[in-house]
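Q: Can I see a sequence and its folded structure?
A: Here is a first one.
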Amino acid sequence: MRDRLATPTQRRAYGRGGINRVTSPWRANTVPYASILLGSLLPIWVLADVMPVVPPLGFLIFLSWRVMRPGLFPLWVGVPLGAFDDLFSGQPFGSAILLWSLTMIALELIETRFPWRGFWQDWFTASLAIILYICAAMVVSGATVTVFMAAAAVPQILFSVLLYPLFARLIAWLDKFRLSRSRRIG
């Protein structure tokens, strides 16, 4: 009787589809890790050029997840994800393990100091992490860092910093997909 009297918006809100559904634990636990691993694999298909222009996609996705969802990853997750990135990035093994772990520790310290942030603070924090990551990756790679090498990394740094809001939007969409209701209870 109540459904006939209710408006269509009330029927949609309280009727079929919304109540009695729960998030899939499999999807909630695998989407963040799978997206980071896919981001680490994507630069393989990009044609290598003279200059590094492609941003470190695995690191950007990892950083976006960490900034958007601070409590999602344990502190030690930089080790296995960094090891996977090291296998496919061409960097010496252990560089991403070190840099991703240091990023997790630094972001955890920033999170405890400034628990409430806005988009601009997140973008500034992520930009600083991206700049430090790319510069530290050049140093850890074992190559002699010259002025020309540093100048060649500037487009990659700028491209990565400017792409961060797009990755934040992608991660927000993936997080919405991750937490959407999928199966009935009972």
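Q: Show me another, different protein.
A: A second, unrelated one:
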Amino acid sequence: MAEHQGQITILYVVNQLSSVGGIEKIVLDKADGLIQLGYRVLIVATEEDLCSRQLFFQHNPEIQFCRNLYKTLSHKQVDIVMFTRPMFREMALCRLRFPSVKYMLELHACYEIFNYGESYFETFVPQPDVSFRQMCDWLFPYLVAVVVSSKNDDSKKWGYDNVKCIYNFTYLQKSDRAHPDRRENVVVAVGRYTAQKGFSYLIRAWKYVSSQFPDWHLEIWGDGEEKDKMLALIKQQGLQNTIHLMGFSSDLYSQYWRSSLFVMSSLYEGFGIVLVEAQACGLPAIAFNLPSGPSDIINNGIDGYLCKYLDEKDLADKLMLLMSNHDLRNQMSEAALNNAQRFTPEVIMPQWDELFRQAIVTPCRQPLKAWFNALRVLFKYFKSDVKKCLFRL
């Protein structure tokens, strides 16, 4: 196969990038890592004008933000387009208009999310008679790669042979604040105040904890639409003095370094980068044993605990076990620091480099069925749009 001549250009397609979340952070971090490897990186958002937005997370100034997906592909030399969500309409239209470009998809949500009532994927289904899975079957097999962030989301589950797992990463923060005596009696949790993060389970679990450890505090960092519900539940449980909703922090690492434990109560996760960040600061982590995410990161009983799914009592018991045992916390803290080494840019970015360089030298496959399926997707969207217009009339 012929080698690619010149600098490789990657175009990331996001829906938005200015809010505070794991996807936003990892996309910008990967863009930085790729630029350091010699790539040219463009980012376009389908719902925002990134050229005029102030982003929450710091980013490499060499990232080029673009205003329009199709104009960017028309006027700039792009080798690979990486969609960061299953944007079926955009994926189908790009395949038809720009067939020589290589297309990939990152899935930041786990396969098992289909089993939950609050479906992340419902927003991508144009009308009730077309399932998310049907859309996947029409488009996914013809992508160069579908990248997942959990070893459990393998090709056997999805049914496509182009599924590849690459973990997310975090930059390790060197600090002299990791001494056990400098840590406070604080358990920290991080995430948007949404139903997915399961903070109601954590609050009820803390009811057991606070009666035995009244000098410990739970700090939940984030914000979101469930804030009022969380405050009401905290008041109902009489935990106003030991649970604190902290809002956003521009320096979460400082909060990690002064805390003693990290807890995650999510109902589902694609990966959970905050777990890695916490372990990189020496925090033993406790989470529900989900099919993906925590089970990819936490070594149960070594650097943290995986609790029975949605079992508030088990979550409380594991918290109290570590809170009551200073030596065990120190032992798991060291193990957590060592475990975090698996998720550094030095380990993860070469995997992306290999994937992209292999994609460049792989000939484009444009079978008739791929074109036909792309047209089917666009037709379904067209029908849905017509129905919406008629309904408005």
